[in-house]
Description:
Elements: H1 27-41, E1 45-56, E2 62-67, E3 72-77, H2 79-82, E4 94-104, E5 109-119, H3 124-138, E6 156-161, H4 166-178, E7 183-188, H5 196-209, E8 216-221, H6 235-242, E9 248-252, H7 260-264, E10 267-268, H8 272-279, H9 281-314, H10 317-366, H11 369-412, H12 414-419, E11 424-426, E12 444-448, E13 453-457
Parallel strand pairs: 3-5, 6-7, 6-8, 8-9, 9-10
Antiparallel strand pairs: 1-2, 1-4, 2-3, 4-5, 11-12, 12-13
Amino acid sequence: MPWQNPSAPQLDFSFEEPRQLRRIWPVRELVGQVRSLIEQEYGDVWVEGEISNYRPAPSGHLYFTLKDAEAQLPIVLFRRQAMLLRFRPEDGLHVLVRGRVSVYEQRGQMQLVAETMEPVGAGSLQLAFEQLKERLKAEGLFETARKRSLPAFPRCVGIVTSPTGAVIRDFLNVVGRRHSGLNVLLYPVSVQGDSAPAEIETAVHELNAATGLVDLIVVARGGGSLEDLAAFNSERVARAIASSRLPVVSAVGHETDFTIADFVADLRAPTPSAAAELVTEAQHKIAERLAEQEHRLERAVRFQLLNARQRFSRVPVSRSEGRMTAILHRLEQRLDDLAFRAETAVRRLVRNCCDRVGDLSGAVLRHDPRQRLAHAGAHLADFRARLDRSVERKIEAAASRLRALDARLHSLSPLAVLDRGYALVLNEQGGVVRSSDQLTAGDLVRTRLAQGSFASRIEEVDRTPPAGHTVPRTTHKKAR
């Protein structure tokens, strides 16, 4: 064997290729790693396409496919993100979706987990506005036949708006100028933000529940962008206005702004100030009519005074004084006559009142409870005396009967017989001994006397019947 240097490198002179180790992946592990790589690489992407196969789930999640002419991608929009959409997705709608690419491991399918979505070409708010408008219009909520007229003379108006904005100040200024006697009840709400639709809906319901408190409702806010007016384009507010028992005036935005609340309400006002003018229109017209009539009456009075001055100027002064004196005398006489009649009427009234008081006093005296109590007391004393006499007679009769019964009882008592010298013999059991046949020699008996008793023992029994006494014969019969 040739010598080899241990420090020299070892050379492999074999001609076989080295065998590589095989790695076997579990499906779940491979799909999970692919999902991790895809989510890291495509964690925030925007995808544009057309919605197809739109399927809302009962849980609130939205499932659909985003496609173009050459490819398609499954999309899932979970309930929390779906609730933030301002429009309703539908098949054929061209949208822009933002989210992250992931893999649904149970199916091994790539999908996009969407975070937000907006339509392409039209804004989401405008699309939501148009969709809700068409749906409510199809339900008949915009029909003119269901709209009610406002009360001509409301006593109190409920206004649903922000308490800090210029809307309420403008509304109160117009009402105070045109109809100062009208009461205004402010229900403060938020008119912008996520909580605004719920607050406006609650305000409309509670003003309707307060029976007799207000006569009509005004829903108002100032102008703004479509985002600012989003609360009044919500379905909750629209249905609350449609179900209102009281008439509702919508005064939202400026004259060029239109909201869903405007279409559903009974009357649309271009501005909140215009709503105040519409509410007070009938009262203001009456005030204008009264002012016009007052002006006409004032002119008529001035004309009559002018004519009177002209007539008096043509009459001589002496004749005028005489006529004035005669008129004054007639008025004084008329006044005296009325005074006499009034005095007579007052006296008659006083006399009638005195007669009435006298009648009432007599009735009171006749029904005086003291007299009735005295009369009742006399009757009670009489009844008590009669009762005492009746009880005494009953007691005497019962005592007499008791004495008679006592005499009879005494006459029938065996003790009375004992008083005449007889004795009563009792055996050991306490029974009465009537015959010597009941005794035998040696029996112990007790003899009862009129005064006391004594015990004795039988030494001899004589069974001979006394003279003249016949012993009854006993007949024995054979039993059948």
